[in-house]
Amino acid sequence: xxxxxxxxxxxxxxxxxxxxxxxxxxxxxxxxxxxxxxxxxxxxxxxxxxxxxxxxxxxxxxxxxxxxxxxxxxxxxxxxxxxxxxxxxxxxxxxxxxxxxxxxxxxxxxxxxxxxxxxxxxxxxxxxxxxxxxxxxxxxxxxxxxxxxxxxxxxxxxxxxxxxxxxxxxxxxxxxxxxxxxxxxxxxxxxxxxxxxxxxxxxxxxxxxxxxxxxxxxxxxxxxxxxxxxxxxxxxxxxxxxxxxxxxxxxxxxxxxxxxxxxxxxxxxxxxxxxxxxxxxxxxxxxxxxxxxxxxxxxxxxxxxxxxxxxxxxxxxxxxxxxxxxxxxxxxxxxxxxxxxxxxxxxxxxxxxxxxxxxxxxxxxxxxxxxxxxxxxxxxxxxxxxxxxxxxxxxxxxxxxxxxxxxxx
Length: 409
What we know:
Strand content: 15-25%
Number of strands: 14
Shape: globular
Order of helices and strands: EEEHEHHEHEEHEEHEHEEEHHEHHHH
CATH class of the largest domain: Alpha Beta
CATH superfamily of the largest domain: HUPs
CATH architecture of the largest domain: 3-Layer(aba) Sandwich
Largest sheet: 5 strands, parallel
Structural class: alpha/beta
Number of domains: 2
Helix content: 40-55%
CATH topology of the largest domain: Rossmann fold
Mean pLDDT: 96
């Protein structure tokens, strides 16, 4: 599966700072100092109802991570999946009387268009669950043969007790895990499971549903968590720098994925940092596909909204915060974009070397994009109010905003 084209990232003078970021697993801020190649895995969409603002906010956060790392003169090895076969996708296709593969392909194509418009840097590897199945089956067989998985009525389940570190990502108690498991695709009440929290690794073929050859597992399709594990281990290996996604993925998805990988390899941890973006609400409720209260990037673009303004709206909120999308949020972003473009359109201006370092410092501090925007706002205000004579300043500001914030002025 192919990703989307990459926009050019301007090189800035000097060098960026190492990233300090909040790690869900340690419940604190850690400093990441990768080697020459930083490694990141971000969980991708289930391709129906793409791309809403909640999606865009999450991928914006991890785009900032890439930009901070690139500014430190590192390379970035970024991997993202597409869950192109799963119960919600099949249910939507059935509801709308569509072929599930056509629905997945159409929504994935729209996602690519939105990511391109928003100038999100693409992953080096963009992998669909379906294309990963040949690599998933051997992992499930290994877990089964090692006693970390078991069969129940033809389905294969992972035993959470096989990983002594289980629970170390989300730090939830058993009852909270059980409730979230039921809410987020698990089946804690199924009779016969060794532990209600045990997640499915391989679902035996169901009538009327797609299935693939699972070798000794029989025909079926993979569970949600093992899909990402197979892709991450194949392309990044254990101990990669960041496992990322929305905060609703901390449990069960990232918790279970970590346990799968740790049971498979005997190594700990799967990722150095587990980084989670906040949720976006609309009309007082979390934006979600099930509720249908979605604002789509493509709809905003069709209405004539500049993608750079959409991106500024996302950047105006800290990535870990839960926030609400409103017309006022977008209007403020549109006005900010106009001010910034007017300021850098002047032939000369006030010096901007200090601004570059302010933006770098803000982003290195747990991706504090609102602080970075405020720094640019201050330069813009002085630029408009003062007659400067630095001919290089407007260009430097424009390149800084482009390179570090992904906004083309």
